[in-house]
Amino acid sequence: MNTATYISELLYRYECVIIPDFGAFLTKRESASIHSATNAFYPPKKLISFNRQLQNNDGLLANYIASAEQISYTDAISKIQRYVASLKNELTNGKRVSIEGIGSFFVSIEDTLQFEPFEQHNYLTEAFGLSSFVSPTIQREIYKEETESLEEKAPIAFTPEKRRERPYLKYAAVLAIAIGVSGFFGVKKYNDQTITYNDNEHKEATETIKQRIQEATFEISSPLPAISLSTLKEEVPSKAHKYHIVAGAFRFIDNANKKIEELQEKGFSPRLIGINQFGLHQVSYVSFSTRQEALTALQEIKNTNDKRAWLLVKELP
């Protein structure tokens, strides 16, 4: 895997990713926005910028490459140096260099390094699955002058006499209430009749069994040993918990298991909820069967634990 891919993966998790001896990518959260001219709605996202002054190696990128490729830290540093050398060589030759999913670099006329981020990629994990859309313009036609002239000639006043001109609305409301009340008592009466019928059938069956037992004659020559019978209780499957509050996504399963242990110590009920489209193992704080429970818990987790938590709707096998 090339170095650009590792940089892209780190931008999902960190606000600063330094490329030693080249510069650093910085991210900043931007809230959802509306473009008034085009009526376009945009989801929240991470804005990416580049700072050439931050070139000291902080070990983040090198350690990540070493862990991903199972190589030594020194070999990872060498790989980064070769990548930076190739970038500088292309820029020196006047070429425009693109880093997949992040942006492009070029040298301006003033001999300064310029960076243009790509807008198509969103590194904000909370916005996974959200995309921009355009809403049709709402047309409002206000006839102000005509309304003012009409009110001068015949002002509108809502009086008791005006309300009495439409009595059918009152009767319609009363009729709707009456239908609702009668429906409620009708259902209640049906339920009461059903319960009474079931009770009578049960009593009749019990009496029949008692009568047959009294009329029967038992002749036991060699009694069998006593046995005990246990009643099996039918288990009703619980409703599937398909609303999951996501705590994070990890490329390595060991890191996902560590996150689960950490959340268990905090009193949550974490679990693995599958691998996403980027090949990352997702871990949830807790799962719920209803959306309202999940939204309430999500707000609480954002306030007390991690504001980056987000809700995933997914039915697990």
3D structure, described in words:
Pfam families: HU-CCDC81_bac_1 (PF18174), HU-CCDC81_bac_2 (PF18175), SPOR (PF05036). Keywords: DNA-binding. This is SPOR domain-containing protein. The longest helix has 48 residues. Among the domains are: 132 residues, Irregular (HU Protein, Chain A), CATH 4.10.520; 71 residues, Sporulation related repeat (Alpha-Beta Plaits, 2-Layer Sandwich). 41% of the residues lie in helices and 21% in strands. A hairpin with a 4-residue loop joins strand 3 and strand 4. It has 317 residues and is of the alpha+beta class. It contains eight helices and 13 strands. Strands 11-12-10-13 form a four-stranded antiparallel sheet. The chain has a three-stranded antiparallel sheet with strand order 1-2-5, with helices on one face. Strands 3-4-9 form a three-stranded antiparallel sheet, with no helix packed on it. About 13% of the residues have low confidence.
